[in-house]
Amino acid sequence: MSARLNEPVAGLAKVRPMTLADVHDIIEIERSAYPYPWSEGIFRDCVRVGYYCRVVELRGLVQGYGIMSFAADEAHLLNICIHQEIREHGVGRRLLQYLMDHARSIGMRYAYLEVRPSNPVAIYLYESMGFERVGIRKGYYQGSPVREDAWVYKLELTHDVHKQIDENA
Ligand SMILES: CC(C)(COP(=O)(O)OP(=O)(O)OC[C@H]1O[C@@H](n2cnc3c(N)ncnc32)[C@H](O)[C@@H]1OP(=O)(O)O)[C@@H](O)C(=O)NCCC(=O)NCCS
Questions:
Q1: Ligand 1 binding residues, C-beta < 6 A
Q2: Less crowded by CB within 10 Å, the N or C end of the chain?
C-alpha cells in the first residue's frame, strides 16, 4: 500500500530510526527499485551493526529509507531509496539533506557515495546537493551482460556554524 498524493508529501513525511520490524516493508520497496536489490539479511545486518539507518514514514507507512556508515571523519551513503509512488515530491532530497545534516552534526567532514552512471535521476540529485564526482570503481555493480562501473561522489560537509559558536563559548 502506498500513500495517496493529494497533499504536499515532503512536508508530511517523517524520518525515524529503522528497526528490524521495518525490513519487511523496506524489502518490497527495494525490490521494486533496483534490478539487483539488497537482501533482507543485508538490511538486518545494517541495523544490527549500528549503521545510521533511517526510514521515511508517511501516514504510518514506510515510504523510503537511507543508510549511512561512518569511519574516521567520512560518512558513506550506502543506500537511499524512495517508494516509486511518492517520487518527485521532494522526499528524496529532504531525506538526503537530513542524512548530510546528521553526518555534519557528528563531526564528519566528507560524505562519499557510489552511483551507477545509468542512474541520471540520482546523479542529478547528488550533483544538485553539491556532490562532486571524484572517481570510478570499475565493474563495481552487478549487471547483465557485463558488470557496471560505479561513479564515486564526494561532498565536503562544511562546518555547522552554530555548533562552532557553542563549542567556543
Ligand atoms: C533517487 C531517488 C531517491 C530520488 O527520490 P525522489 O523523492 O524522487 O527525489 P525528489 O523528489 O527530492 O527529486 C530530487 C530532484 O530530482 C528530480 N527528479 C526526480 N525524479 C525525476 C525523474 N524521474 N525525472 C527527472 N527529474 C527527476 C526532481 O525534479 C528534483 O529536482 P528539483 O529539486 O531540481 O526539482 C529516487 O528516484 C529513488 O528512490 N530511486 C531508486 C533508488 C535509487 O536509484 N537510489 C539511488 C542509488 S545511488
A1: 33, 80-82, 87-93, 115, 119, 121-122, 124-125, 128
A2: C
Q: Specify the pairing of strand 148-156 against strand 132-141.
A: antiparallel
Write the CATH number of the domain with boundaries 9-168. 3.40.630.30
> Cα–Cα distance between 40 and 26 in angstroms, integer?
8
Q: Over its length of 169 residues, how does the chain's per-residue pLDDT go in tens digits?
A: 444 455 577 788 999 999 999 999 999 999 999 999 999 999 999 999 999 999 999 999 999 999 999 999 999 999 999 999 999 999 999 999 999 999 999 999 999 999 999 999 999 999 999 999 999 999 999 999 999 999 999 999 985 544 444 444 4
C-alpha cell at 95: 531525506
* Domain layout of the chain by residue ranges: 9-168
Residues 131, 77 contacting (CB under 8 angstroms) = no
For ligand 1, pick from 125, 127, 148 the residue to mutate: most ligand atoms within 8 Å of CB: 125
pTM for this one? 0.92
Give dist(CA 150, CA 140) in Å, integer.
6
Kindly state the cell numbers that stand for 6: 493529494
